[in-house]
């Protein structure tokens, strides 16, 4: 089981603002910040559902190539809300909300590129 994961970003403040807005509709918040003085390499911000962050961003240059991170949500409405919030936060469309039956009949997801081109997804696996 994965405990947490993270990505590197080229503009920490811009990405922190993006993820704060984009992840809010799925119940994720900014839970922790750790300055470069403590990490030894760059500023870091942890997002998740309280009390523990499980998705981290860190300054220091974006991962190359960009990576894909998918957040599992409970409802299709959350997928839609994630997409709208991420687009409003400056994301780029990489797949509007909808069914992806080539994965399985109830796979409902939306894909947005973050400011560094990472493919960020919200996905619901339940019908309606």
Q: Care to give the gist of this entry?
A:
This protein is 23% helix and 39% strand.
CA distance, first residue to last residue: 27 Å
SSE sequence, one letter per element: EHEHEEEHEEE
Instruction: Report the count of strand segments.
Output: 8
CATH architecture: Roll
Low-confidence region ranges = none
Tell me the helix content: 10-25%
**Which shape, going by the Cα principal axes?**
globular
The largest beta-sheet arranges its strands as: 1-4-3-2
What does this structure look like?
This protein is 23% helix and 39% strand. It contains three helices and eight strands. The strands form two sheets. The chain has a four-stranded mixed beta sheet with strand order 1-4-3-2. It has a four-stranded mixed beta sheet with strand order 5-8-7-6, covered by helices on one side. It is globular and about 45 Å long. The protein has one domain: Roll (2,3-Dihydroxybiphenyl 1,2-Dioxygenase, domain 1). By secondary structure, it is of the alpha/beta class.
């Amino acid at each position: 089981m994965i405990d947490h994961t993270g990505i590197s970003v080229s503009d920490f403040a811009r990405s922190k603002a993006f993820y704060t807005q984009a992840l809010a509709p799925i119940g994720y918040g900014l839970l922790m910040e750790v300055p470069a003085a403590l990490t030894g390499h760059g500023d870091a911000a942890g997002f998740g559902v309280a009390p523990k962050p499980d998705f981290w961003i860190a300054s220091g240059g974006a991962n190359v190539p960009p990576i894909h991170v998918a957040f599992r949500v409970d409802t299709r409405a959350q997928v839609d809300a994630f997409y709208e919030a991420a687009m409003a936060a400056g994301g780029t469309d990489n797949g509007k909300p909808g069914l992806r039956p080539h994965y399985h009949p109830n796979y409902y997801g939306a894909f947005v590129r973050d400011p560094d081109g990472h493919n960020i997804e919200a996905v619901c696996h339940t019908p309606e």
